[in-house]
Amino acid sequence: LSDDAQLLLSRYVDGELSAAEAEGFRARLAADAALCRQARSLERLGLLLRAWAGEAQARCGDLVEPTLERVRTAQA
Amino acid sequence: VNRGHHAASNRLERENESELDLQLIARAQTGDEGAFRLLVERHQRRVFAIALGLVRDEQDAREIAQEAFLRVHKGMGTFHGGSSFFTWLYRIVTNLSIDLMRKPSRREAELHFALEVDDAESMLLPCSPEADPYDAVHRGQLSQRIQGALDALPPYHRGVILMREVEGLSYEEMAEVMQVSKGTIMSRLFHARKKLQRALADCHDEECVGAKSA
């Protein structure tokens, strides 16, 4: 795939194309197996990253009390 | 593939969240500690994950998240809702993370780490392409691989890919957070995705059924 096609695909999957542009791109996607594979690959990459973030968020712990304590100290 | 709708629904969801944030800020500006507490509760995990993605150290990420909320509290009087609360908050998180990474001791650590993970593909563990990514990550099988692939990216690539894929920020919002042009955001996203696709190739390659062969 050319860089231009991949950039356009990125804008499509990110919802950054206009409605008319997106419609035109969907037709192109349906006709181009390589482009479609790349779209699926981007979609799956997003799933992986969201899954990673979900796990990372679970390691956050509770920041509320320490944060409020800092605020109170700063105000004192 | 239907990401356009995903992005749209995510945006709608965030607009609703943003409305609630504005109400909480308005209350917090009058000294309502409970409202500020709710703001921290609502955003702490996401802020932590973005900071962790940028600085790669859990303790540093917690420190940055707390400092970011403290700055929000200090600056609340000047916030008039011109941008959304989370855009403002993420800009603070991004700036704090960049400041930390610019510290000389941290720069040496970054360089050392970059040399270690230069060949990210070779250090990654094998994984099954058939596995459902959510199940696999919850079992802890993929997490290290994804972390390794993210670690191999420059910080500004990590930031943009996480804000887009995890938080669903638009190009315009990311440009505001990172204080660069939309073109720069597009370029960073493009390169970040390319590198991550290479590093995680066997985790996300799928046959595309229904399309004509090229």
Helix-strand makeup class of chain A? mainly alpha
Averaging pLDDT over every residue of chain A, what do you get?
92
Strand elements of chain B, count? 0
Q: Classify the secondary structure makeup of chain B into a structural class.
A: mainly alpha
H and E string of chain B = HHHHHHHHHHHH
Overall pLDDT score of chain B: 79
Describe the fold and architecture.
The complex is a heterodimer of chains A (76) and B (214). In chain A, 82% of the residues lie in helices and 0% in strands. In chain A, helix 1 crosses helix 3 and helix 2 packs across helix 3. Chain A has helices spanning 3-13, 19-31, 33-58, 64-75. Chain A contains 4 helices and no strands. Chain A is mainly α. In chain A, 33% of the residues are buried. With 214 residues, chain B is mostly helical. Chain B is built from 12 helices and no strands. Chain B has helices at 3-29, 33-55, 58-75, 85-102, 104-116, 120-123, 133-138, 143-151, 155-165, 171-178, 182-199, 201-204. In chain B, helix 1 (3-29) crosses helix 2 and helix 3 (58-75) crosses helix 4 (85-102). The two termini of chain B are 18 Å apart. The relative contact order of chain B is 0.10. The chains are: A mainly alpha (76), B mainly alpha (214). At the A-B interface, helix 1, helix 2, helix 3 and helix 4 of A face helix 1, helix 2, helix 3, helix 7 and helix 8 of B.
Describe this protein with a few key phrases.
heterodimer; A: 76 residues; mainly alpha; 4 helices; 82% helix; elongated; B: 214 residues; disordered C terminus
